[in-house]
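hi!! sorry for the late reply, been swamped w classes. u asked for the two structures so here they r. pasted raw, havent cleaned anything up. first the sequence of the first protein and right below it the tokens
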Amino acid sequence: MVKNRFDIELGFYESLAKLFYCVLLSDNNLNKGELERLNKELDKHIVEADKHNLFSTQQGNELIGKKLGELIVANTDVWKVLDEFKAFKIAHEDLFTDEINTKLWKVVNALAFSTAGKNKSEIIALNEISLIFKQH
């Protein structure tokens, strides 16, 4: 089934929520400071699907927040959502330019440092994410 542009862009932002969820919950702990840091980083490193975006930056960030909330409430497995992010990234490689990948890496790295520095779980998550960006 061919997806329309709206569905692809919606999937893009939902996949970003999955990426951020993986880092935020890799240690099975989430605090207010980490969510505040995510919002700050998203404002700092504006991530858009492409220059012909159907969603504004604010709408994209709201979509990320909504999906992130759903994942948190459902207590979704971190590694499952990382696999889903990877599958979306492979299927829509054109959306993940070098510039986008660099911005995403800056955001996930900042999230890992958002509280007391990187812990073992976050280092493992960052390593897996790094492999995804390097392979695809």
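now the second protein. again sequence first, tokens right under
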Amino acid sequence: MLKKLALCFALLALPAMTSAEEYMCDTTNFGNDGWIPPKIFLSYDPKTDRAFAYDGIIASVSKKPVEVKWKRRSETSYQFNWTTNDVKMSNDGSSTVSHRVILFLDRMTFSMGGQLHGYDNTIRGSGTGKRVGEGQS
């Protein structure tokens, strides 16, 4: 799965993002309701002000990375926000899921929260990240 995520992202997004920094993140789900993917691929390019995310939830809907909102929170942290629509649910319905990731570059850790729209689910997790691709530090 990790190789598929990285390969997909490299093929679809990198030609337009030559100065991008890329991170593969392993997550731990702290809620009882799921909706925290086990792996998340994040990429941002401060020169073009573009960022992308890819995970199993996104893959179930779009099959390619999605552009996300991002901002610098401090010298060592960034926040990524995205919403995935039409996510299949176990009851044969679908819903919208919003996620927020705060990536701490100095510790290579992150926290994650989210919302399953229309439900009271607790969506939160955390984990570690690793820089991938060219220019790894």
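hope this helps!! also noticed smth abt the second:
Residues 2-13 form the longest helix (12 residues).
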